[in-house]
Amino acid sequence: MMGVKRAVTFNHNPLLQRSLAPWRARLVLAVLLVGMSVLLGRSLFLQGVHNEFLQAEGESRYARVLEVPASRGRISDRNGNLLAVSTPVSSIWADADAAQLEPGQLRQLAQLLGMNVADLNARIAGGRYFVFLKRQVAPDVAEKVAALNLPGIHQQSEFRRYYPKGEVMAHMLGFTSVEDRGQEGIELAYEPMLAGQAGSRRVIKDRRGQVVEHVKSILAPRNGEDVVLAVDDRIQYLAHSALRDAMRQHHAKAGSVVVIDARTGEVLALVNAPAFNPNNRAQLSGEQLRNRALTDTFEPGSVMKPFIAAMALESGKFHASTQVNTYSGSFTIGNRTIHDTHPYRVLTVAEIIQKSSNIGAANMALAFEPEQMWSLYDRLGFGSPLGLGFPGEASGNLRPVKTWKPIEQATMSYGHGISVTLMQVAHAYLAFARDGDVLPLSLTRIDALPKSVQVFSPKVARDVRLMMETVVNPGGTAIRAQVAGYRVAGKTGTANKIEGGRYVNKYVSSFVGLAPVSSPRLVVAVMIDEPATEQHFGGMVAAPVFSQVTEGALRALGVTPDAPLAPLQLTAMGSDERKQGGRDM
Predict the structure, then answer these.
(1) Count of Cβ atoms closer than 10 Å to residue 325 Cβ
(2) What is the DSSP-derived secondary structure letter of residue 560?
(3) Which domain holds residue 78?
(4) What is the DSSP string of 445-467?
(5) Of the listed 302, 413, 442, 509, which one is catalytic?
(6) Is the pLDDT of residue 212 over 60?
């Protein structure tokens, strides 16, 4: 028994002897076939019918459409010198969810961006998908940031505006925002022309947001158009320097200078003080930004008297030698009395301009109906914007003629009771420089002359021009306006300012003139606001600025001299100018 082995037979197991029912095998096969059919159908649906949706969903994970910035148009002066250009820069931004930076990485990034570590960290933590860390970073700094290869830190290409002339052209050009959109000056006035149209391109990004492949360009960027200004940067610099020196010398609050080409109406220079640097606007104030020559109005004073003289001559009632009673320096109209600085009894029309007699101008004005005087001022452009398209351009104030009283008509003849901009006065003086007609002004260079308006006859304009030449000669109120080698003509203005409805002992000093008298090429207007020294008269404060700017501008333009290069006739000035060159208001 011990050596007997028992064989094990497995086929006697009852579980193995039971066979499956045929229907179960067929059921399993049917289920598998149905499942395969469903999967096949779904696959065909997704890849054939619903392909666009899935493709878009897939692309959204890795494909992006990026904006391609357009370059803003350049601004140049009339001679092609660049005044405003756009340079490529980068802006650094963060995907806050992905920007998990270590302390050392934060310090490196903050140092490159010139930021405080705490501020940088707060900016990242305060954002989510997109937050700018610093705009308009220099290309070399952007390269260093990219080299750090920080997670969630990205860059985008932009343009930054650069102004090579700095504050010299500040008020003319204005400036752009960080988005490269015009905010002031020419940049704002010509925004539709200067601004380009951004393009777009499709790219593939990796999981860290880095561009790994450029797929295609969807829309090519359209760069902005260039603008060529009428301004001459040489004359602009001369005007800027002369005004800056006068401001310092007289401790003035503000000032403006305008230079116009009398042949074309083009504005060759426009400067204001105080100024600002458009490349660095960190500490700007409203006082610095104001383009005073176009936006600030003031009572012009005696610079208005030549228009009254021209109206008188044009009527035929007066001639240059016609004598006008000036009542020994005191003249009463109703219950108001106006005065002259010197008690002249009788002056000719020419002497009224030379000596700047308020009473003489008032008596000439009162010889005409108020409507005639209002119509003249209106045709000269007072009381309405000049239409230069410059932001904030003021219209001044020329009150309706129906409200005029005799005393108001009298005072408006010598520039009180009317408000103007310096540009308006300079524009009106074109009538004397152009033999009686006035052209529209232009801030951009022009190729064809616009239509002019004849205001005075050529003879009257030339006669008044000769009267104004006596103003800068001995016996006149502006000897300091003389220019060596050139005959010049003009008129001083010294007007009290109004505060709280009353005239106060603060002044606006001005001088507006033209040169050369024989064939006028330039009209130059100067305004100095609140000179704080004892010398506040137009002949002492504004006339020297006119002289300096006019001499440099005529020589820069190559205008032939029309007078001997003799020493200026200043010997007769002395006390006479201080007496006469003053209170011409």
Answers:
(1) 13
(2) P
(3) 65-228
(4) --SSPPPPEE-S-HHHHHHHHHH
(5) 302
(6) no
Pairing of strands 437-438, 227-228: unpaired
Interstrand relation of 63-68 and 75-76 (parallel, antiparallel or unpaired): unpaired
The pTM assigned to this predicted structure is 0.82
264/357 same-domain check: yes
Do 217 and 258 sit in the same domain of this protein?
no
- Domain for residue 223, yes or no? yes
Least confident among 3-7, 376-380, 467-471:
3-7
DSSP class per residue in 131-169:
EEEEEEE-HHHHHHHHHH--TTEEEEEEEEEE-TTGGGG
Structure confidence by residue, pLDDT tens digits, 471-504? 999 999 999 999 999 999 999 999 999 888 888 9
Nearest to 90 by CA among 127, 130, 140, 131: 140
Is 302 annotated as catalytic? Answer: yes
Q: What are the DSSP calls for 181-230, one per residue?
A: -B-SHHHHHTHHHH--B-EEEEEEE-TTS-EEEEEEEEE--BPPPPEEBS
Q: Are residues 466 and 568 in the same domain?
A: yes
Confidence tier at 422 by pLDDT (50, 70, 90): very high
Q: What is the number of other CB atoms lying within 10 angstroms of the CB of residue 14?
A: 6
Give the whole-angstrom CA distance, residue 306 versus residue 585: 13
